[in-house]
Amino acid sequence: MAAVMARTARxxxxxxxxxxxxxxxxxxxxxxxxGFDVASALTLMALHVVAAVIVVPVLANRLADAR
Length: 67
Hints:
Elements: H1 2-8, H2 12-33, H3 38-61
Helix pairs in contact: 1-2, 2-3
Protein backbone atom coordinates (compact mmCIF):
# COMPACT_ATOMS: atom_id res chain seq x y z
CA MET A 1 0.00 0.00 0.00
CA ALA A 2 2.85 2.38 0.80
CA ALA A 3 4.48 1.73 -2.57
CA VAL A 4 1.25 2.44 -4.44
CA MET A 5 0.70 5.64 -2.51
CA ALA A 6 4.29 6.71 -3.13
CA ARG A 7 3.63 6.46 -6.87
CA THR A 8 0.09 7.82 -7.06
CA ALA A 9 -0.77 10.13 -4.15
CA ARG A 10 0.02 13.84 -4.15
CA UNK A 11 0.85 13.68 -0.47
CA UNK A 12 1.97 10.08 0.11
CA UNK A 13 2.92 10.24 3.79
CA UNK A 14 -0.25 11.90 5.15
CA UNK A 15 -2.42 9.78 2.87
CA UNK A 16 -0.72 6.60 4.05
CA UNK A 17 -1.02 7.54 7.73
CA UNK A 18 -4.71 8.45 7.43
CA UNK A 19 -5.46 5.26 5.53
CA UNK A 20 -3.63 3.03 7.99
CA UNK A 21 -5.36 4.66 10.97
CA UNK A 22 -8.75 3.99 9.39
CA UNK A 23 -7.79 0.42 8.52
CA UNK A 24 -6.50 -0.18 12.06
CA UNK A 25 -9.81 0.99 13.51
CA UNK A 26 -11.69 -1.20 11.03
CA UNK A 27 -9.52 -4.18 11.96
CA UNK A 28 -10.93 -3.94 15.49
CA UNK A 29 -14.55 -4.27 14.35
CA UNK A 30 -14.48 -8.08 13.93
CA UNK A 31 -12.99 -8.44 17.41
CA UNK A 32 -16.10 -6.78 18.82
CA UNK A 33 -18.69 -8.37 16.54
CA UNK A 34 -17.63 -12.03 16.41
CA GLY A 35 -18.66 -12.81 19.97
CA PHE A 36 -15.28 -13.05 21.68
CA ASP A 37 -15.26 -12.63 25.43
CA VAL A 38 -14.21 -9.19 26.62
CA ALA A 39 -10.65 -10.14 27.54
CA SER A 40 -10.02 -11.81 24.19
CA ALA A 41 -11.51 -8.92 22.23
CA LEU A 42 -9.44 -6.35 24.14
CA THR A 43 -6.29 -8.42 23.66
CA LEU A 44 -6.86 -8.74 19.91
CA MET A 45 -7.60 -5.02 19.56
CA ALA A 46 -4.50 -4.14 21.59
CA LEU A 47 -2.37 -6.35 19.35
CA HIS A 48 -3.73 -4.64 16.24
CA VAL A 49 -2.90 -1.24 17.70
CA VAL A 50 0.57 -2.30 18.86
CA ALA A 51 1.39 -3.68 15.43
CA ALA A 52 0.19 -0.47 13.78
CA VAL A 53 2.18 1.70 16.20
CA ILE A 54 5.33 -0.21 15.27
CA VAL A 55 4.87 -0.60 11.51
CA VAL A 56 3.11 2.59 10.37
CA PRO A 57 5.78 5.11 11.47
CA VAL A 58 8.57 3.02 9.97
CA LEU A 59 6.84 2.89 6.58
CA ALA A 60 5.59 6.48 6.78
CA ASN A 61 9.12 7.80 7.35
CA ARG A 62 10.16 6.29 4.04
CA LEU A 63 7.49 8.23 2.14
CA ALA A 64 7.79 11.79 0.92
CA ASP A 65 5.58 14.50 2.42
CA ALA A 66 4.60 15.66 -1.05
CA ARG A 67 5.36 14.86 -4.67
